[in-house]
Amino acid sequence: MAKAKQQGMTLLEVMVALVIFSTAALALMNSVSLNVRFTYGLADTLQASWVAENQLAEAQLMQSDFPDTEEEGTETQGGRSWTWRKQRVKSADQGLVDEIRVWAEGDDSQPVITLDIIPPGEKK
């Protein structure tokens, strides 16, 4: 009787396939992790820009100039609390610039966004 040829993969073939699969899975997980971190940072920047734009719109509606001394307040946007500070400051070219800086709640290390606006009538 002739021996039938066995079908299947050897242990070495299985191990090589597992190494290839695990390398691809690690690369995919790293890519997904970077994407999630980028998206979270983008959401923060977007919400902080809304807070800054709200302060600018409020100043325009009230037809009030930005203060010469720093003014601070808080606003809730997207279920989070944001701290804003606004002030009229001198720019590098000695002109005046209205500046709004926005910080995320609990992170005073640096503002999430800084918005500089040249007031009407000022030169660039």
UniProtKB/TrEMBL annotation:
Keywords: Cell inner membrane, Cell membrane, Membrane, Methylation, Transmembrane, Transmembrane helix. Residues 42-116 form the Type II secretion system protein GspI C-terminal domain. Residues 65-84 are annotated as: Disordered. It comes from the Bacteria. Pfam families: N_methyl, T2SSI. It is a single-pass membrane protein. Signal peptide: none annotated. It is found in: Cell inner membrane. SUPFAM superfamilies: Pili subunits. Its main location: membrane. Cleaved by prepilin peptidase. Belongs to the GSP I family. Component of the type II secretion system required for the energy-dependent secretion of extracellular factors such as proteases and toxins from the periplasm. Part of the pseudopilus tip complex that is critical for the recognition and binding of secretion substrates. Type II secretion is composed of four main components: the outer membrane complex, the inner membrane complex, the cytoplasmic secretion ATPase and the periplasm-spanning pseudopilus. This is Type II secretion system protein I. The gene is gspI.
